[in-house]
Amino acid sequence: MALQTLFSYINNYVSLTSEEEQLIAEHVTVRKYLKGQFIVQQGDICQYSSFIIKGCSKMYFVDALGQEHIIILAVEGWWVSDIASFINQKPADFNIQCLEDTELVQFHYNTIENLYDAIPKLDKFFRKILERGLAASQQRIVRNFSMTAKERYLYFKNTYPEIETRIPQYLVASYLGITKEFLSKIKRQLAYER
Fold first, then answer.
1. Region for residue 77 given its phi and psi (left: phi exceeds 0; alpha: psi -120 to 50; beta: otherwise)
2. What average pLDDT does this structure show over 176-185?
3. Which of 35, 41, 97, 113 suits 86 as a labelling partner, its CA being 20 to 30 A distant?
4. 109-150 pLDDT, tens per residue?
């Protein structure tokens, strides 16, 4: 089931043969994490690029004052990894923690290059995923600089309605770069405007 979900996702970008799917199956790990468990912790080296089959996770860093800053909220069909740590095999800047019981298909750093050599179109697939991720990151930076907190919240609510219903509001606030009190104020304003 998990691998079929992954293969369906990959086949949206490149077409895999049954032999290629079998080769991938031999080189990936399907792993389940419990709510609260870490996939990666700040300071550790990220060993896996992970595809979420089921569940929800957050990627965040903790600043010198102990404040948590959420960078990504990820759900089914999304990839999650500290990409700089994974690519460079250097200590991670981010924590990745499960917000729900989560099932992942994981590509290990030590085997992914072998898969690229054996299945060149897989290299193309991951390039496309990284390009999309970079574009989304850049668009989020622009939104953070050009939109008000209310506009950012409305964008988040309309773009990712399934995420907001699955996580506590203080996490939504952290993702938006505001306090939970300010998010409550925005929601009251919106309710009043209806």
1. left
2. 92
3. 35
4. 999 999 999 999 999 999 999 999 999 999 999 999 999 999
Q: Indicate whether 194 pLDDT > 80.
A: no
Helix axes 120-146, 149-159, angle to 10 degrees: 140
Q: Other CB atoms closer than 10 Å to residue 18's CB: what's the count?
A: 8
For residues 110 and 112, what is the distance between their CA atoms, to the nearest angstrom?
6
Q: Residue 9: CA atoms inside 13 Å, Cβ hemisphere, count?
A: 17
Neighbours of 50 (CB within 10 A): 27
Q: Exposed e or buried b for every residue in 61-81, given b needs 16+ CB within 10 A?
A: eeeeeeeeebbbbbbeebbbb
pLDDT of 105 strictly over 80: yes
User: Which distant-in-sequence residues (6+ apart) come within 8 Å of 137 by Cβ?
Assistant: none
Sequence spans of domains, the chain: 2-137, 147-194
Residue with tokens 């939970």: 180
* E strands in the chain: 28-33, 38-40, 48-54, 57-62, 68-74, 79-80, 95-98, 102-108
The arrangement of secondary structure in 2-137, i.e. its CATH architecture, is Sandwich (2.60)
Q: Which of 77, 71, 82, 58 is nearest to 140 (CA)?
A: 71
